[in-house]
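Throughout our pipeline, every protein is held as a single compact record rather than as scattered files. The record that follows is passed on verbatim for readers who wish to inspect the format:
___
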Amino acid sequence: MFMNKMKIFFKLFLIILIPLSFLWSWVYRLRRFLYNNEILKKASFMVPIISVGNITFGGTGKTPFVIWLCEYLHQLDKKVMILMRGYKGEFEHGSALLKGNRKLGHNPDLYGDEALMLVRRLKDTSIIVGKKRSQNLEYYFSKESPDVVVLDDGHQHINLDRSLNIVLFDALMPVEKYKVAPWGYLREGLYALQDADLVIINRSDLVSSTELNELKKMIKPHLRADIPVGEMGYKVDGLFDINFKPTISLHDMKDKKVVCVAGIASPASFFIMVEQLGCQIVDKIVYPDHFAYAMEDVDYIVERAFKLDALVITTEKDIIKLKRLDKTEHFHYLGVAVYFLRGENHILDAIKRVCKN
């Protein structure tokens, strides 16, 4: 009886969500229409702007891709500025300038964890934190004089004109979840792909060809003709300690017992990569994305690992926040880098073309 009542309640709940989803979709569709038809004006700058974004909630791997993109732009001898929100940092509602390749002494509570990942990994890069990105670009542009601007999480930030729109998808997200919020996980409808210049499906190596083709079949009707669809994955490039120094060799991880700790949007791929090292995962401790760790969380994790006689392995994004707490010498993080399964040449050519204009 109870289960039947729950099923009825769930069906009624879906009936309520569908019209809300329809309304949400049309608000975003109207907004995009107004900007694309110049009824509302976009801010423009005399510099190439590359947007890296998605149309879903949750992690599609934007930060590792932004790192890869900026490193490639540096190979082209370009001075790069990144505009990002600094989610859950105090400067999200204001603005702040960070310089890349500096010693990590900043507070993630102020700038957000993703901004500090970029600060540590990228050289000669200006990182501007604050959700009013077009205003921040105008304020810092003359001070930093970038050759290229990377707009992080920018696909919905359409009041700023851009030269290249890159949209990421997560292959691990089932296609049935591609419904507009609050019914599903889409920020806006698939019609938003009409503005995409490149589409990249991340974690393509972690799904079957059938699942991958099903996702492509859903995406392609909404793209303009001849828009390249690339495929991307992550490769593990080492195990590191709290001070970002290499620790245990990856070859020595086989059969080791580990406790995995993740406060990221899509932890499934992290767990898979740990398993692929040959580790024995004895516990998975999952926190919400951008989780603000406290000392009691660290105590619990360390105690759990001690009882299970296991190593603690987390992500680089998590280690940024854990570094400020005690007892974190017990933590290791998995370093990852982007690699392409298909479409890398199309992506590189598009970036070079934009930078020459």
Q: What stands out?
A: The mean pLDDT is 90.
